[in-house]
Amino acid sequence: MITRNELCRHATALIAAIAPLWAATANAEPNAQTLYNAYCIACHGAEMNAGIGGSLVDAEWKYAKTDAEIVALIQKGIPEKGMVSFEKILSEKQINDLVKLIRSKALSSE
Fold this sequence. Notes:
The chain is mostly helical. The chain contains 5 helices and no strands. Helix 4 crosses helix 5. It starts with a helix and ends with a helix. The mean pLDDT is 85.
């Protein structure tokens, strides 16, 4: 039986594999919400508050607190928890845009 972490890893790998095709067909760089929908929603949920990856909008973060720590977390991933590294998939700007999106969603959910 496949575990949740394995499922998340496989989904992320599939998305990473098709990302170059998707990027080649896009005229403009995708916005943060589009990136979230493509890479994060499977593990963190549509509202960023659920899923096997845990909430991104509650007050308690286990692995990062500052924006710089969140950027590093997205870049390096948490392999033992099933989160892959995105540093070769997403640009620094895209990762920073994701952090801004997460922070804005967290503020609006307070």
